[in-house]
Amino acid sequence: MSPAWTLRTGRLLLVPIAWTDLADITALKADPRVFAVMLGGVRTQVQAAEELAADMAFWAARGYGIWSVRDAATGAFQGLTGLMEREDGRGVALRFALWPAARGRGLAREAAGAALMFGHETAGLARIVAVARDDNVASRTVLGGIGMTERERFLRDGVAMVLYESRRPGPPGAPAGSAG
Fold first, then answer.
1. d(CA 12, CA 68)
2. Is the CB of residue 166 less than 8 Å from the CB of residue 128?
3. In contact, 16 and 6? CB cutoff 8 Å
4. Over 50: is that where the pLDDT of 179 sits?
5. Which of 5, 23, 166, 176 could serve as a FRET partner for 71 with CA atoms 20 to 30 Å apart?
6. Beta-carbon neighbour count of residue 3 at 10 Å?
7. Are 131 and 90 in contact (CB under 8 A)?
């Protein structure tokens, strides 16, 4: 992976996921406090490994994907964030999932904001979406806090969902939302 794909924020190090992350990712995705509300729900070890392989292939093909979120000082695994193509055709989506112990300190906002900026500025994505359950106030607060705007509401399996959107600013004088 290119060193340009590793991101550093004030408190975090975002590193493209790799096989060395398998144990941490498997544990995170098996935790119902984290993944019970995610699309697809809690994952088995086999499912986590299959998703990791697919995520690594996505990085290789697209030049963006999922990062392992680590404490910059200690290297401790905090969770995941990144950009993936949504299977429902709504576009490239920002995703994040952090350990419950990492919550409430602004780490999700810091990690998701870095991924969003990378998507627009480095990957050149004009439009990035994110989807959260309507009742997931914490995730919706993060998405609004990093500048994403609510655009659509829909039902998924009978659950109310909210789609957020971010558009890369275009060149001066360009219509809002145009790519530069």
1. 10
2. yes
3. yes
4. no
5. 166
6. 5
7. yes
Residue 168 neighbours by CB under 8 Å, 6+ apart = 120, 121, 124, 125, 126, 127, 179, 180
Supply the pTM of this predicted model. 0.88
CA distance 19 to 84: 18
Give yes or no for a contact between 82 and 95, defined as CB atoms under 8 angstroms apart. Answer: yes
| DSSP tag of 175 | P
Token pair 């780490």 in the structure block, residue: 107
What one-letter code names the amino acid at 119? G
Choose the weakest-confidence range: 3-7, 10-14, 18-22, 53-57. 3-7
CB 30 within 8 A of CB 135: no
Question: What are the sequence ranges of the domains in the chain?
Answer: 3-124
3-state class (DSSP) for residue 172: coil
Using an 8 Å Cβ cutoff, are 99 and 28 in contact?
yes
d(CA 111, CA 130) in angstroms, rounded, equals 14
The position carrying tokens 């419950």 is 100
